[in-house]
User: Fold NBS type disease resistance protein from Malus domestica.
Amino acid sequence: MAEAVVIFVLERVADVLAEIQLAKDVRLEILRLRDELKMQCFLKDADAKQEDDLQVRNWVSDVRNIAYDAEDLIDTYILKVESYKYKKWNFVKRYASTLKARYKIGKDLVFLRTRISDVSISHEAYGIRSTGEGTSHANEGLLKLRRSTPHGQDKDIVGLEEDIASLVARLVSEDQWRAISIVGMGGIGKTTCAKEVYNHADIQTFFDCHAWVYISQLFRTRDILVSIIKQVSTRTNDTAELGEDKLEEMLYKLLEGRCYLIVLDDIWSTSAFDSLAKAFPKNHSGSKLFLTTRKNNVALQADAQSLPHELRFRSKEDSWKLLCRKAFTESIERMCPPQLEEIGQEIVAKCAGLPLAIVVLGGLLSRKRRLSEWQRVLNSIRALLARCPNAVSAILALSYYDLPYYLKFCFLYLGLFPEDYLFSARKLFRLWIAEGLIPYYDGRMEDLAEEYLNELIDRNMVQAARLSANDRVKHCRLHDLVRDLCISKAKSVEFLYIHLKYGIFSPFPCSDSRARHHAIYSGFSSSPYVSTPNLRSLLFFKVEQIECGISLSDVCRRFKLLRVLELEDMKLRRIPSAIGEMIHLKYLGLRHCSIESLPEEIGWLSNLQTLDILENAKICRVPDVLWKMKSLRHLYMYVCPFAGKWRIDTLQHLQTLAGINIDSLRGINSANLISLRKLRLAGSFATNRAEIFYSLANLLNLHSLSLKSMDSLFPSLSALSSLRHVIKLHLSGGISKLPNPHEFPPNLNQLILHQSRLENNPLEILEKLPYLFVLRLKHSSYRGKKLKFSANGFPQLEYLELEFLDSLEELEVEESAMPKLRSLQITYCQKLRMLPEEIKSLTTLQELVFEGMPRRFIDRLQGEDRHKVQHVPSIIKS
Assistant:
């Protein structure tokens, strides 16, 4: 881990030398410091030995502390010198203060180099040897790999077939209310098994309504009740002001008389179940509660008459099969080469049949093909088991140690997120980049961050929870045991600190912590303003529906070295002018903070990469200072048309520009926005239409475009054909006539229509788009009664979504239409009577999703229309 810290600081020093104009004497001292810190050849060996040797561990800690002190010294100097530029001082005072700061950092750097020299010499006394050249740069080799495509759901289900069949039979066979539980230790596959059962075609057909909620150790009854209500009813706006008793009564009435299935995943205590039990009517319509828990007493509390289904450890044969599927992912047969089989069998035996251990170990072995590498893994497992008899803990720890240095910090960073938190991959990339965890290279750092996340997923350290239509990861989460490991390792290197309610969680004494990354969960009852002035990250999470009091002025005053400040859902209203003094800030998250304006001083944040002020409906003023923030990469706005006009054509690094008014695009040289890839515009397109589309055509890297018309109708959209690089298009607003096929962007593969209010069948035009891969017809996009999919139409379409088409009554599918369709989702189309007979000819269809559909539609699907969809592996109704 010390290797990761030192390399991280070296890259930070390199950034400073490249970006900041330093005085000659200061630059010279920093160069000398950089040379002294280049000791990776010793750190690799030290990192390997520190688990077994206290002296080596202390040596590594000294190196880590020196590296952090070096970073603090440089950042503090830059903060001082840069702050002088904004003070109303005369030249003499500014020059004298700068000289004083230069003298101090020079003196401190000399002392720091002495400390480095002393520590470096002492490595021989601890038997730390050189391993040759330092670790190669993070992105070498990695970018040569083909980008992996992790799977959102586990297709390697091994050894659960009988469990799934038994549970499905129990859930659908009885007319009585029952609470059926899966019981087993952590990591044995309870949630995996429950998901397979929940998505089983017989389950989806048998029950009228379904809901899945995750309970965990930290939960609020109110949040769980609201979540279930949202899944079984459309009356989601009625819950905001209701207390627990009223919500309980509301849910009871919604479920009464219906055949429901409610999954309570990972429920830990009988008191947790008791707090929810009264909301579930015990009717005679075959309704079921379906629990996963580690404790038998919880299962019996839920239903003493129902025998808990206990998951067993995998057999020797199933364990071996599962390991091979995870370790040999590039092979179609997923077979182990003969020379590795004997040692592989010995390795898998150490997992004792626990699926999580097998899966994680398979991810580790998937990147090793030589017998000597597998032997080293086996030796490491033996050594870890000698210290820690718990097999899963030992194997998870081994998987962490096997991570390359550039992934260790990225993995530890995930420990900041709350338990079972569904985190956005895009947001994670921006946080990693802001923290300096992603090195700069010739391509996009976001692409490299995606490679890092995919590698963590390939190693089964992170779970991909949601995928996009093109199989890219959208959201992720950590298994709770992996999160425990993450926090434990972060604690050992003082990487992070989590503020929770008193007495629930405390990774280490806060007063002694040098942790640079802090997370504060709402409901925290003590002051978060601890004595950590060198804090680099401060993230707030609203994990409960409780306001978390915060003084942003205090944050700006106390933590001037912050790089990341995430305040989403904190009710701030006002941003203090002191925000401009946080010159190291690279990520500022102000989404849904009820802010009304931004101060002029925000323009001082010249290093800011991400500014997110979405979902602030009251914001009425944004000063014209965005042009100064030349490091901006992602800008998310929520601004009314009267909030002003901004110059933005100086932002050559800008990749995402969302929520901006069309007027801000007029009168600027859009060709200067050379990095812009994603753009969301709103406003009136009726005037200066030619100028608008000319500006859009100049954006040569634009891939994703969203246009929202504030007029009753879009003007002619024929100029879309000039957008040759756009592959994703979202049109929101009235359209009197769709463009002809040749008038759409020529390379378009994703199209979303919303509030288009089209009277004529749009498919007659859209089915001729040659590369269309995804089509989403959203709320009120079509007013007609019938949609006809013609023969040979939509040759490349794989995803089709129909949502809130209030007049739609009939679908017609001709033979050979949509030959590649994989997923069909129909949501709240209340007048749609049934699926067409021809749906059974769509042999490529893998998934059908129905949400908020009328009772008669669902009844037909479960009865006379069942033969139409019996070939589809996954049918989900909610």
Notes: The longest strand covers residues 178-183. The radius of gyration is 29 Å. The mean pLDDT is 83. Residues 161-310 form a domain with the Rossmann fold fold (CATH 3.40.50.300).
